[in-house]
Automatic annotation (TrEMBL):
<dbReference type="InterPro" id="IPR050388">
    <property type="entry name" value="ABC_Ni/Peptide_Import"/>
</dbReference>
<dbReference type="GO" id="GO:0005524">
    <property type="term" value="F:ATP binding"/>
</dbReference>
<dbReference type="InterPro" id="IPR003439">
    <property type="entry name" value="ABC_transporter-like_ATP-bd"/>
</dbReference>
<dbReference type="GO" id="GO:0005886">
    <property type="term" value="C:plasma membrane"/>
</dbReference>
<keyword id="KW-0472">Membrane</keyword>
<dbReference type="GO" id="GO:0016887">
    <property type="term" value="F:ATP hydrolysis activity"/>
</dbReference>
<keyword id="KW-0813">Transport</keyword>
<feature type="domain" description="ABC transporter">
    <location>
        <begin position="4"/>
        <end position="250"/>
    </location>
</feature>
<dbReference type="Pfam" id="PF00005">
    <property type="entry name" value="ABC_tran"/>
</dbReference>
<keyword id="KW-1003">Cell membrane</keyword>
<protein>
    <submittedName>
        <fullName>ABC transporter related protein</fullName>
    </submittedName>
</protein>
<keyword id="KW-0067">ATP-binding</keyword>
<keyword id="KW-0547">Nucleotide-binding</keyword>
<comment type="similarity">
    <text>Belongs to the ABC transporter superfamily.</text>
</comment>
<dbReference type="InterPro" id="IPR003593">
    <property type="entry name" value="AAA+_ATPase"/>
</dbReference>
<dbReference type="InterPro" id="IPR017871">
    <property type="entry name" value="ABC_transporter-like_CS"/>
</dbReference>
<dbReference type="InterPro" id="IPR027417">
    <property type="entry name" value="P-loop_NTPase"/>
</dbReference>
């Protein structure tokens, strides 16, 4: 069943610049779609439009139906229920989602309490569990800490725990590993991959890196200058890209890969 149905989505600035141009795609329940393209191709604006979170000075037109709710042109009031419950987001920079002045445990407790109705000791237990699920060591210490007291990788895990706390049907991950040290990127990808599979959650995964996208998604949509260039099953796109731009993306990903092979050769 279709969970996210985007049709003819167009995002414009108030002065008439078109930043996302007539974009259409769908994500079925439990399906994992990657949005890939170079910097400035409109990936982030697409995810923000899906959540009804476009910045001031921008408007969207077309249709975005998320779990049956029309997000384009909807009143803010009707969208607050959709965010979190139907779709939750992890951004590139975890500090975007975290409140610097609130202990991390409380930030996870709020959405958890809303969904489960738990309070007191049982709620604290659920927060502990949520932090354990994202494989944070010493969950109780992390729960008492503030965002600036933990590492970047740990902050991103907390942001992921927050996004998962509402058990959304769709997880939107916008370059969730790009700001992390290379050494923790692979771990984070594996974690996201495992958790969404376990929960049969759908994913819209944004990245400029084809290798990253192919690790966690079934299908990809390639974007350039706000438009869809090509979409299809990851395997097909990597093996036989049809469009010139996609070919360039695949070729440069392969070049990096073969450089790695050469370096690791005996
Ligand atoms: N708040 C804003 N005001 C004006 N233009 C913006 C704003 N946010 C993004 N843009 C422009 O919209 C276009 C698409 O941006 P978007 O952030 O969606 O790209 P992206 O593919 O996610 O790239 P990146 O990976 O660099 O974030 C870019 O040309 C960008 O300069």
């Amino acid at each position: 069943m279709t969970l996210l149905d985007v049709r003819g989505l167009t995002v414009r600035t108030d002065d008439g610049r078109i930043l996302v141009d007539d974009l259409s795609f769908t994500v079925a329940g439990g399906e994992r779609l990657g949005l890939i393209g170079e910097s400035g191709s409109g990936k982030s604006l697409t995810t923000l439009a899906v959540l009804g979170l476009l910045p001031d000075g921008m408007t969207s037109s077309g249709s975005v139906e998320l779990a049956g709710t029309q997000m384009v042109g909807a009143a803010e009031r009707s969208l607050t229920g959709v965010r979190g419950r139907d779709a939750a987001v992890v951004f590139q920079e975890p500090l975007t989602a975290l409140d610097p002045l609130m202990r991390l445990g409380r930030q996870i407790a709020e959405p958890l309490a809303r969904r489960t109705g738990l309070t007191g000791k049982r709620l604290r237990g659920a927060v502990h569990q949520a932090l354990e699920q994202v494989r944070l060591p010493e969950p109780d210490r992390i729960a008492r800490a503030f965002a600036h007291e933990v590492s970047g990788g740990q902050r991103q895990r907390v942001a992921l725990a927050m996004a998962l706390a509402c058990e959304p049907k769709l997880l939107i991950a916008d370059e969730p590993t790009t700001a992390l040290d290379v050494s923790v990127q692979a771990e984070m990808l594996e974690l996201i991959d495992g958790l969404v599979r376990e929960r049969e959650m759908a994913v819209l995964f944004v990245s400029h890196d084809l290798a990253v996208v192919s690790r966690v998604t079934d299908r990809v949509l390639v974007m350039k200058d706000g438009r869809a260039v090509e979409q299809g099953v990851v395997h097909d796109i990597v093996r036989a890209p049809r469009e010139t731009y996609t070919r360039t993306l695949v070729a440069s990903a392969r070049k990096l890969e073969s450089a790695l092979d050469l370096r690791s050769a005996p």
